Amino acid sequence: MELVLILLGAGLLLFLLSAGITSMMEKERRAACISFISGILLSFPYLLPVLKDVTYPDWISAGMISLAGGCLAISLIPFRGRIQYTYQRPRNRFDERDTMFSRQKLVPGSKKFEVYYRLRPQHRPL
Prior knowledge:
Helices cover 63% and strands 0% of the residues. By secondary structure, it is mainly alpha-helical.
């Protein structure tokens, strides 16, 4: 039973740490902090038997495993049912370079940077 808890805790920790690293690579500091902190806090009860010489009673171990399984099951259940999509034609064209993430990749001083902000001076950072 403890091995299952340890594997669940390690999996949870690795998942949230990888989410935090991905968030750091995308320069999203808040998301990275939340991922790191929640990874440590949420996996701590599962990894406690490894960190200290602690053994949980079987009913607590079963409850923790059931909690993890229940959360996984709830996240996989489609509650909204079938969604009806309708095709919508955009009324006006949208330039994808105007999105924040595209502008974040522009390097100051480069030709693309100068051309983009010459055409759209209202988007120039302050």
